[in-house]
Amino acid sequence: MNAPQLDALVASASQGVEFDGLSVAADSEEYRVEIPGERLETDEAGLRAFAEENPWYVSNWYYWTRTVGSEGARYAFLRWIEDAGRPVGERYEALSTGVSRTWGQLRVSATIGEDGKRRYALGHVDDAESASLDTYSDPLAARELVKLDDRGRYRPLSTAPTLPTGWEYPNLDGEDLVRTVDFIYPATVENWHREREGELDVTHFREAAERQSGIYEIVSQLSVEELEAAAETCCVDSQCLKRRQWDEDEETDLDVPRGDGEFPCREPCSLFVTAARKFVTLGREEMRSYEFELTPTEKEQIEEIIDAVAEGRTDEIREADLNEGANRYRARYLRARRMPDGELSGTSTYPED
């Protein structure tokens, strides 16, 4: 607590102060101050002395009401980081050594600074124990920082669980922390806050599909079974860190896990709509019967390859691990044996052509 903070508290007493267990009121020259377990009626000098003995209540009040501003998404997010439902003393003790929360693949940490100011650190959860990281201070730099994953591939979906590692923002104030998070996971803090306030405006799939035009109009033709397969493909935790809150429509839930993410997904995203368009065209093909000659192991190998590609595991399979069906040499051998002319088991896809 510093002198300006204490002066601000005394000046605010006539309007009344009620915040995080601190209560201060003034009537003419008389002051009433209260914290959990203690209550005092005194003059201004007594109020100042009481504050000097309990400085964390004053600096806490000042930080949240004057530095941060006591409303809105930023306020709620910063309070959530330090679990502000706890008593002030307990919270300050925890902040002295640092408290952390996980936001998607981000690790957000808060510590107590001079005169009760909070300082925040931001990085990848997997880098919590890393000693050599590239450090940043400009929130805007995060835009470029997260464009590519660790393998150098473009990330078309900001909330895909492919956030690159190797960087940190070690010292941010609350405003810059929220700005940085917003560059990495756009609108997640705002939508999280709206959900907590019961104000999240959800747009379900049918409504979103009706808005599409041009080549995307056909997404409205997606059946509920195809829609559920699409949601299982694109919207589960392994593909997106948001928690899906939209369904087919307001009355029809999708039988697909919504995800466990901290922040909600309020509508089908552009990537989902693009994928849905492709799924519609694939679903309009007529079924045909083909006859292939494969050994049981070859059939299982094809299934293992599809599974490995779908789960993004192909880079994890070691070249020397020939027990893996999706092993590169196993796949090349299968192709040499069963696709010598480029078609599986010599079976033409369009035999009538």
Automatic annotation (TrEMBL):
Limits of the DR2241 4Fe-4S iron-sulfur cluster binding domain: 197-278
InterPro entries per the UniProt record, alphabetical: DR2241_Fer4, DR2241_middle, DUF7348
Protein's name in the database: DR2241 stabilising domain-containing protein
Residues covered by the DR2241 stabilising domain: 89-196
A Pfam family that the UniProt record links to this protein: DR2241
Every DUF7348 domain range: 3-69
